[in-house]
Fold each of these.
Amino acid sequence: ILNVEQSPQSLHVQEGDSTNFTCSFPSSNFYALHWYRWETAKSPEALFVMTLNGDEKKKGRISATLNTKEGYSYLYIKGSQPEDSATYLCAFVNNAGNMLTFGGGTRLMVKP
Amino acid sequence: EAQVTQNPRYLITVTGKKLTVTCSQNMNHEYMSWYRQDPGLGLRQIYYSMNVEVTDKGDVPEGYKVSRKEKRNFPLILESPSPNQTSLYFCASSPTPSGGNQPQHFGDGTRLSIL
């Protein structure tokens, strides 16, 4: 089983703060890296699928970067809002391309 | 509306009583997958399917069976459920046979309790 780690496990920030968290994954046999947002009592929703080293993707106030050579991806949230409170999951896909290995998630809580 | 539908949403049952959790998608997706979510362990892939009649084991397939007889349906079967299969289960689908290069669309989840 592949080792995909996310840090920190949880994070409390104030409304308006910018924040970032990390997903670490194997640097070999890379195919893709997924990011999902998972609100309590709902199902995970896709944020980004990243495939190229150096990729940067953005969706509103949320952006992500990818470094496949060193095996990490950062997710950034600019000006956090209470509605950003959720668990953020990353998933590594190896070069077979068919299996997703998820990290344990980062739980973000944004206080008004 | 494009969606992945799981049934039931909640189930409490007893050890050894066979059960099936259904999963259906209306997006004509090739790839479908089952995950379980346990506290502290994150989402773990049970089985996946790249197309009709093509299924493969994920990281935690023991105690589960699946079938893909039609493109839209991917049921998860627990032949003899045990308490360690108590978990939150998600079905997901994505457009291409390789599930890795497209985002997964998740169902609403099924919470199973096996006594």
Amino acid sequence: AQKITQTQPGMFVQEKEAVTLDCTYDTSDQSYGLFWYKQPSSGEMIFLIYQGSYDEQNATEGRYSLNFQKARKSANLVISASQLGDSAMYFCAMRGIIQGAQKLVFGQGTRLTINP
Amino acid sequence: DTGVSQNPRHKITKRGQNVTFRCDPISEHNRLYWYRQTLGQGPEFLTYFQNEAQLEKSRLLSDRFSAERPKGSFSTLEIQRTEQGDSAMYLCASTLLGTRGSLANYGYTFGSGTRLTVV
């Protein structure tokens, strides 16, 4: 079974500072993918970044980067130069890369608040 | 095609009534997923379709829940005899499974969800 753990229920950060959102995972799959999604108060889940388990380099997408430490089973999201619009819920999720459902398993989320 | 569309956005119903939600995925996506998200939690998998075939159902999906995807296009999720515990956000997502079994597109595109309140 796959499990995602996000231990920070809430984070408060000053605008323009960098912030790291923690995510640890557990899986017996050899191949898997890790995702981060942003969920504003409007409800939609917005895809931010993806890391494959065999990717040798950490994924980056603009201000988002994923600090992937496979041995520690962690996939932390780093947001550089935070903006007020970054205030939202953030979810870490994983998916096994095998035939089958390939469904996403989500963590409980971290509520990020950016203060001006 | 502007993304995954879900209707209605909000639904308030009395306990015991039936409700139906609709999801229109991205047209070329062959996989469609339903998730349920309760307050303060991450989304939980309910069921998924590949084209018109429903291939897996979670144990969360009691016999009061039924989902269909006729002709592999839009999907409906029906809840019969609603209970207060059914109050949640119901999210739909779609993606494209490549011909060799791996995901051609890593991303799952989610709709904005249907928020159900059972009173």
